[in-house]
């Protein structure tokens, strides 16, 4: 290590040669420090990061974390992580030494999040709080597993928020009928929302569909990709999970709607996108249809819940619903939609009583 001062510029320079945690020798030089203290601090921080010392700052550890994650996560997932960590986590913990962060620090951070209010006086939603907290927990889990951190302080601190929203919004069959009648003046809008309601696919999956994905002979739609927007560019990526690669059957009402819509598309080409629009178009058309029909406003993703609610109402099993929605586990389906299933306790008692009286 060497810290020297340039007589001409009166600035300090640091040179360092060190073996990183993989054994590779690194020679690093940095100029322009205003003080010797700043140059020495840069040396300490760089040494901690290069040797993967737990004394490194949380900010430096995040750099290592993202360097590893960028080869393992989809670009959109990585971008979402960056946003949450850069905006909600790093500003609070960035200056702290990784190994010095305690459960009490995490709880103070959690309290700052739960106390936050926007200009309208609204707090973060419980599900958003849970998502932010999960990102910090994942970072410390990574430090424990790969860098030898003794324990994850988030486990002692407990969690905040909720995994599921207390109230799930969805449309009933009557509400969907009123909405779709109000948007039939635009064939694309009618086709989009009819497809969403009768298949339960995600909006990214919908917007990635091509004409070739629709098989009228077999009455099926193949879902094998998803459109995601990142840095103002659209990317066609694999679906969210392996189980998201699936084939869903079309009811006759959807098949008729898509036939009419595809027939009026200009030109030919099976690989062209079925719906060449952006996610913002879906939101705008949703708002227009709700205004015209008087149906309550829900999110685009809530139409997926509406489809699941329809299947529950029709008596289909959680396994079939999981397959149709592309859930990785049936448990996910049960946790999300179990409250929609009717309570069968009285029916059980009646059948037991009848059996015992025989």
Question: How does this model look, in words?
Answer:
By secondary structure, the protein is mainly α. The protein folds into three domains: 2-51; 62-157, DNA polymerase, domain 1, CATH 1.10.150; 173-340, hpI Integrase, Chain A, CATH 1.10.443.10. The chain contains 15 helices and eight strands. It has helices at 36-50, 58-69, 75-93, 103-115, 126-147, 153-157, 173-182, 187-199, 203-208, 252-263, 279-293, 302-313, 318-325, 330-337, 345-356; strands at residues 2-5, 12-19, 25-33, 214-215, 220-223, 226-230, 233-237, 246-249. It has a three-stranded antiparallel beta sheet, with helices on one face. The longest helix is centred in the middle third of the chain and has 22 residues, at 126-147. The radius of gyration is 27 Å and the shape is elongated. The model has no long low-confidence stretch (mean pLDDT 87).
List the helices and strands and how they pair.
Elements: E1 2-5, E2 12-19, E3 25-33, H1 36-50, H2 58-69, H3 75-93, H4 103-115, H5 126-147, H6 153-157, H7 173-182, H8 187-199, H9 203-208, E4 214-215, E5 220-223, E6 226-230, E7 233-237, E8 246-249, H10 252-263, H11 279-293, H12 302-313, H13 318-325, H14 330-337, H15 345-356
Antiparallel strand pairs: 1-2, 2-3, 4-5, 5-8, 6-7
Helix pairs in contact: 2-3, 7-11, 8-10, 8-12, 13-14
């Amino acid at each position: 290590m060497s810290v020297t001062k340039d007589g001409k510029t009166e600035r300090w320079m640091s040179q360092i040669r060190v073996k990183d945690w993989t054994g590779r020798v690194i020679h690093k030089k940095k100029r322009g420090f205003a003080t010797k203290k700043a140059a020495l601090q840069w040396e300490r921080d760089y040494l901690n990061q290069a040797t993967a010392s737990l004394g490194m700052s949380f900010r430096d550890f995040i750099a290592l974390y993202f360097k590893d994650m960028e080869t393992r996560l989809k670009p959109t997932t990585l971008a979402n992580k960056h946003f949450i960590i850069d905006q909600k986590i790093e500003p609070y913990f960035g200056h702290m030494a990784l190994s010095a962060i305690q459960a009490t620090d995490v709880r103070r951070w959690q309290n700052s999040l739960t106390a936050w209010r926007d200009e309208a006086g609204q707090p973060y939603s419980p599900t958003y709080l849970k998502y932010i907290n999960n990102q910090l927990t994942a970072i410390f889990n990574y430090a424990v597993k790969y860098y030898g951190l003794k324990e994850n302080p988030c486990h002692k601190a407990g969690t905040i928020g909720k995994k599921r929203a207390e109230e799930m919004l969805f449309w009933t069959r009557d509400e969907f009928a009123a909405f779709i009648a109000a948007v039939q003046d635009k064939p694309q809008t009618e086709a989009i929302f009819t497809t969403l309601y009768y298949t339960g696919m995600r909006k990214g999956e919908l917007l990635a569909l091509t004409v070739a994905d629709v098989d009228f002979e077999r009455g099926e739609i193949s879902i094998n990709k998803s459109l995601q927007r990142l840095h103002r560019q659209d990317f066609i990526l694999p679906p969210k999970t392996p189980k998201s690669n699936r084939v869903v059957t079309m009811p006759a009402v959807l098949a008729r709607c898509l036939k009419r819509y595809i027939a009026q598309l200009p030109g030919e080409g099976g690989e062209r996108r079925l719906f060449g629009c952006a996610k913002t178009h879906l939101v705008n058309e949703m708002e227009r249809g709700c205004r015209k029909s008087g149906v309550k406003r829900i999110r685009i993703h809530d139409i997926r819940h509406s489809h699941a609610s329809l299947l529950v109402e029709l008596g289909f099993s959680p396994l079939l619903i999981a397959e149709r929605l592309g859930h990785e586990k049936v448990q996910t389906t049960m946790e999300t939609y179990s409250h929609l299933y009717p309570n069968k306790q009285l029916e059980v008692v009646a059948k037991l009583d009848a059996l015992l009286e025989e």
